[in-house]
Amino acid sequence: MLTNLRKMSKISAAKIVSQNSHVVAGKLKVTEHFFDVPKDYSKPDGGTIRVFARSVQKNEIPIVPESTKDKDQLPW
């Protein structure tokens, strides 16, 4: 068991290749992540694969400022 823990402590972190964010419907911030990880953690020199992940969080900055939301809208 201790040997496995020692081996795991030598595993390097994934390498972030890119991160791109965009706002969806003015309410959600979507970030797409690409990073490289080893194909086999027990053989880190055996090549890598690129992994995709997506994270979503509430957009804290509204697209439409609060001051324009409260104004009366014309019917046309």
Strand order in space, largest sheet = 1-2-3
**What oligomeric state do these chains adopt?**
single chain
Query: Tally of extended strands?
Result: 3
Shape: rod-shaped
Q: What is the CATH C-level name of the domain at 12-59?
A: Alpha Beta
Q: What would you call the structural class?
A: alpha+beta
**Percent of residues in beta strands:** 35-45%
Helix content: 10-25%
Spell the H/E element sequence: HEEEH
Mean pLDDT: 80
> Which fold name fills CATH's third level, the topology of the domain at 12-59?
Dihydrodipicolinate Reductase, domain 2
Question: How would you explain this protein's 3D organization?
Answer:
This protein is of the alpha+beta class and 76 residues long. The chain has a domain at 12-59: Dihydrodipicolinate Reductase, domain 2 (2-Layer Sandwich). It contains 2 helices and 3 strands; from the N terminus they run αβββα. Strands 1-2-3 form a 3-stranded antiparallel beta sheet, with no helix packed on it. The chain is rod-shaped. It starts with a helix and ends in a 7-residue tail after the last helix. 0% of the residues are buried. The model has no long low-confidence stretch (mean pLDDT 80).
